[in-house]
Specification:
Radius of gyration: 13 Å
Strand content: 25-35%
Structural class: alpha+beta
Number of helices: 3
Number of strands: 7
Largest sheet: 3 strands, antiparallel
């Protein structure tokens, strides 16, 4: 697995071995082709579509960032660097909004 350490923001870094987990205060439900997330902390709804929905499904399985990248590479025709960059952006947004915890190792 080749996902190099990426320094994202606020001192957080992501590597292929970083564990992604959903906090207890976040609920999710699939509605049509979209995944709706609800943060019980701030009572805001968030939506994920397409690859974002598939990303969330894989994260629910308790995978590392590298395993998520590998799984999506097997499902979609995309370059690893492009996918890693796009997923890092989604991950940062989810993390910033308190919807995802990144345990860097």
């Amino acid at each position: 697995m080749l996902v190099h350490n990426q320094h994202v923001a606020d001192g957080m870094s992501i590597s292929g071995d970083s564990t992604l987990r959903i906090p207890d205060h976040v609920l999710s439900r699939r509605v049509g082709g979209e995944t709706v997330l609800l943060s019980l902390d701030d009572e805001h709804y968030y939506g994920l579509e397409g690859v974002g929905t598939r990303f969330w499904e894989i994260v629910e399985e308790g995978m590392t960032f590298g395993a998520v990248v590998d799984a999506l590479l097997a499902e979609y025709e995309v370059e690893r660097d492009v996918l890693t960059k796009d997923l890092t952006a989604v991950l940062l947004d989810l993390h910033t909004n308190g919807l995802l915890v990144v345990d860097a190792t």
